TrEMBL record:
It catalyses: 1,2,3-(4Z,7Z,10Z,13Z,16Z,19Z-docosahexaenoyl)-glycerol + H2O = 1,2-di-(4Z,7Z,10Z,13Z,16Z,19Z-docosahexaenoyl)-glycerol + (4Z,7Z,10Z,13Z,16Z,19Z)-docosahexaenoate + H(+); a triacylglycerol + H2O = a diacylglycerol + a fatty acid + H(+); a 1,2-diacyl-sn-glycerol + H2O = a 2-acylglycerol + a fatty acid + H(+); 1,2,3-tri-(5Z,8Z,11Z,14Z-eicosatetraenoyl)-glycerol + H2O = 1,2-di-(5Z,8Z,11Z,14Z-eicosatetraenoyl)-glycerol + (5Z,8Z,11Z,14Z)-eicosatetraenoate + H(+). InterPro entries: AB_hydrolase_fold, DAG_Lipase-Related, Fungal_lipase-type. GO terms for molecular function: metal ion binding; monoacylglycerol lipase activity; triacylglycerol lipase activity. The chain crosses the membrane at residues 20-43, 55-77, 98-120, 132-155. This is Diacylglycerol lipase-beta. One of its GO terms (biological process) is diacylglycerol catabolic process. Lipase that catalyzes the hydrolysis of arachidonic acid (AA)-esterified diacylglycerols (DAGs) to produce the principal endocannabinoid, 2-arachidonoylglycerol (2-AG) which can be further cleaved by downstream enzymes to release arachidonic acid (AA) for cyclooxygenase (COX)-mediated eicosanoid production. Preferentially hydrolyzes DAGs at the sn-1 position in a calcium-dependent manner and has negligible activity against other lipids including monoacylglycerols and phospholipids. Keywords: Calcium, Cell membrane, Hydrolase, Lipid degradation, Lipid metabolism, Membrane, Metal-binding, Phosphoprotein, Transmembrane, Transmembrane helix.
Amino acid sequence: MPGMVLFGRRWAIASDDLVFPGFFELVVRVLWWIGILTLYLMHRGKLDCAGGALLSSYLIVLMILLAVVICTVSAIMCVSMRGTICNPGPRKSMSKLLYIRLALFFPEMVWASLGAAWVADGVQCDRTVVNGIIATVVVSWIIIAATVVSIIIVFDPLGGKMAPYSSAGPSHLDSHDSSQLLNGLKTAATSVWETRIKLLCCCIGKDDHTRVAFSSTAELFSTYFSDTDLVPSDIAAGLALLHQQQDNIRNNQEPAQVVSHAPGSSQEADLDAELENCHHYMQFAAAAYGWPLYIYRNPLTGLCRIGGDCCRSRTTDYDLVGGDQLNCHFGSILHTTGLQYRDFIHVSFHDKVYELPFIVALDHRKESVVVAVRGTMSLQDVLTDLSAESEVLDVECEVQDRLAHKGISQAARYVYRRLINDGILSQAFSIAPEYRLVIVGHSLGGGAAALLATMLRAAYPQVRCYAFSPPRGLWSKALHEYSQSFIVSLVLGKDVIPRLSVTNLEDLKRRILRVVAHCNKPKYKILLHGLWYELFGGNPNFPTELDGGDQEVLTQPLLGEQSLLTRWSPAYSFSSDSPLDSSPKYPPLYPPGRIIHLQEEGASGRFGCCSAAQYSAKWSHEAEFSKILIGPKMLTDHMPDILMRALDSLVSDRAACVSCPAQGVSGVDVA
């Protein structure tokens, strides 16, 4: 529900968010009260010492104070359990209870200070009693400190501006005043987000690219979050409900309802060949991450294997640029790719905003010059990812609509300049003129590799690109279609990144608003059921007011959804099926090339760690990645080591089944 308004400002916490904190505090307070009561009853006869009367009074008053606090916290917890996310009516007394609870902190602080002073004076009483008093004082100050930290966490810097309109919204204002209000809120939100990002990234420098990235990221966040009044727990509840709703739809879906987007028989013929190429070139994409990924993949032996290289200096043997632990990086690259020192033309771990590390090597097995671009691994890379507005891609091709993700486009342009202006590719092809150019990368590196291949295609018409788990929001539909002939993307399972774009995030926000607004259960039950479902599975049918076919006929926001909006924009669509109208700065963007989708067959546990998984592969249409899927593996499926493991399993299983008769559905090769 909308954030609570206390002391004339909005806070980033709702009135139904206090069940779990209240329960935790209640348990601590009850145990504390029982402990003090036990201490007093067992040792009150030993309080006839000097200062004992003060300690006795201290314990009695503390027990009374704790009893009042326990009653208040119990009331807060019970009230917080009432109603639903968008029905705060049963919780209207919450603000008064919170004022009472906060007022009780003042006598608690006074009494904790008096207890500390009395103990510091060196009261000569029974040591057990004194130790009990010390423990009581320590616990008091820990709880007070925890409360202060909690208040800081839920403090909303924009709360003072949003409070007057959080419930009524700007609808009571005329259009001019409403527009001024919204512009003011957006400007303030952008400033707040920019300050937060600068604090988070305070150690990465202040060059021009970094300042531009700060502004772009702040504008993206302020634009995305400025039109809703959701608190973080609402988003968590919405994601839990969406996962269950998604699984419920899939379980009830008939096989005949599954729409096939298989491109055709000509593409089916080379699926095996492209999978083998992906399996081979994924080693280079992983190698570009350097020693951290290698150690992560080989936790027991990795450090021993590359330890010697870390202490060895070979900078005269190859072109090694930028970064720390360069020889460690190079040692891990050698072990990952299986190449020799002489096979590397250039290795760069120079890492700044819009400037990605990359390696250039000669791959004699495939007779190719391989350029591998590193994916996200630093705060600089995250800022590159989040510079999500679009710009026109400067390439020589017949495509008219050449919009692309600004941050990734800038990163690809940097690598392009290095390859061409520094003569790196010329050097490589002077050694192996008959080789072809192959560009690879994972995640952010996959998106940059696709853009780089497009930039280089005029000079190297035979260029090929293998993009592993690239972001969906990369470039225009026209460039997506143009890239079909020379780019192959590989996506594993429910990986969120190949489904991630500003348009898809807007769609996810709309779906969260709808499912949260119309769930007829209190938030604490949603979160408990969601946690159980994520960990252990079970029945995904968690009832809402939209069960059945009613969802599909609702085209306007219902009352619950309206309460979650801070502004009503005519561009904001509530249709369940139509795409959202996008800002000109964030048009719909698409993934690169043809897409191979690896899917796990059967069940291997909620997190894929219980048994060896088997995978199938198929050509997929980009429309299959037009919605973000919620699940335990939406993040783990993106990890390069998981993708490598899946490719190893799939390629070995397919090789073992070469002599098996063809079977399965057209467009799907079963492992």
